[in-house]
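pinned: reference chain
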Amino acid sequence: MSNQNLIKQFKAIGTAEGISFLVLVFVAMPFKYFLGMPLFVKYFGWAHGVLFITYLIWLIRIKVELDWGIKDFIIGVIAALLPFGPFIFNKKLHA
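pinned: its structure tokens
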């Protein structure tokens, strides 16, 4: 797989992971705690967990295949932990 395709797929995963995190925090959690509807957290939490693990696996793959430094790798991990982090990190990758 070419480097460009690898980055393109990683960015797509990052976008999906970022959206799932925002939906979980700003939609599903309020539904659970304010409307008493915990089912949203169950399903969106599960989806976000799968996307988060996929994001980390691809981040490790990119670090190895593209020989990224530890600094870029750590920034990528931190980005996954912040609500808008994956979107900001994707912009960094685009530059």
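why pinned: The chain has four helices and no strands. Residues 3-94 form one domain.
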